[in-house]
Write a structure and sequence with these properties.
Number of domains: 2
Mean pLDDT: 93
CATH architecture of the largest domain: Alpha-Beta Complex
Helix content: 40-55%
Structural class: alpha/beta
Largest sheet: 6 strands, mixed
Number of helices: 12
Order of helices and strands: EHEEHEEHHHHHHHEEHEEHEEH
Length: 326
């Protein structure tokens, strides 16, 4: 039997995967890893439907993968699904074990931590921090008895792993997620991984260099409650886009933030962050566009055509101006 792990290449997906692989070693069974850059979420279609195989899905929207999920279940593949993004209607099928929670204070690493009763909690803490759930990461660290200085190191690791996933293609990334998963696997303690891994050092150095460039950016458009940043067409900018969105959201607390990045093949990639208290979520706004999706406070658009940039920025400002109570 082959076990397929299908996971987002960001910190949340990788740390969820790491917890399960540590807690549930496959022994002699074959396993296949299916992943990509952070925005590469239509992943289930890459799994060969073979009766008797198993599949664990981590941190990608069920709704986006619905057709492939249905086909795999019909072919006799058993599926566990851990996710916190928009799911739509969850199929009722004997072969599907869903662990889906859309609340804004939950990420996939936290869902896996609950499933495993905290057996690999330090990796869950890394995943939560990487997914910008700082308060939740702090709470998990405190509950696990992790000293504040060590929690700060786990946070830095989560941010570096998460930043690595942002890019238009694998070539944009410092370390392909499959390679990063392989380097992580031997380590039950993420701090030992941070100390020993050459890949981790590459991420830390690259993260520092990229963010120094990114933090020099000024807003391209700014209105009360809505701020838009335009990134240049460069690999560092594509890598920095997601982390920059989180940083700018903190710097512009009380405003929705959009980070717009040129795609090499035309059009734009958009990252959106929206304060929890806003009545319209980032996910609801981005789903107005054909390739948009995400969750309440963090969402994006995978391909915004160039001719729609002006209408997007206008709609963004109108929607979120002064907190957009409606």
């Amino acid at each position: 039997m082959n076990h397929n792990y299908v996971f987002n290449g960001d910190a949340d997906g990788l740390c969820a995967l790491q917890q399960l692989r540590l807690a549930e070693p496959r022994g002699s069974g074959r396993e296949t890893l299916v992943t990509g850059v952070k925005r590469d979420i239509a992943l289930l279609e890459r799994v060969t439907p073979t009766a008797g195989d198993a599949c664990t899905v981590l941190d990608i929207s069920l709704d986006v993968n619905r057709a492939a999920l249905t086909a795999l279940l019909a072919a006799g593949v058993s599926i566990r699904y851990f996710d916190h993004h928009f799911a739509g209607e969850i199929p009722a099928h004997a072969g599907l074990e869903p662990h889906i929670d859309l609340r804004p204070n939950v990420c996939t690493s936290i869902l896996v931590d609950r499933h495993l009763d905290g057996r690999c909690r330090r990796w869950a803490i890394v995943g939560a921090y990487g997914d910008s759930l700082t308060a939740e990461g702090d709470a998990l660290a405190a509950a696990a008895g992790v000293a504040p200085d060590l929690a700060a190191r786990l946070k830095s690791l989560g941010l570096a792993i998460n930043y690595n996933a942002y890019g238009e293609t694998i070539a944009d990334l410092h370390v392909p997620p499959v390679d990063l998963a392989a380097e992580m696997l031997p380590f039950s303690d993420p701090l030992e991984f941070a100390d020993a891994s050459a890949a981790c050092r590459r991420l830390a150095d690259g993260f520092k260099e990229d963010m120094e460039l990114a933090r020099r950016l000024a807003p391209a458009r700014e209105a009360p409650g809505a701020v838009v940043f335009m990134l240049p067409d460069a690999p560092w900018a594509r890598r920095a886009s997601g982390t920059l969105a989180n940083d700018k959201a903190k710097a512009h607390a009380g405003s929705a933030v959009a980070i717009v990045s040129p795609r090499t093949e035309g059009g734009y990639l958009v990252s959106v962050r929206v304060p929890k208290e806003f009545s319209v979520s980032a996910e609801a706004f981005c789903r107005r566009f054909p390739t948009g999706g995400g969750r309440k406070t963090a969402a994006g658009i995978n391909h915004l055509p160039s001719e729609e940039l002006e209408s997007f920025t206008t709609a963004f400002e109108q929607q979120f101006r002064d907190g957009a109570s409606t």
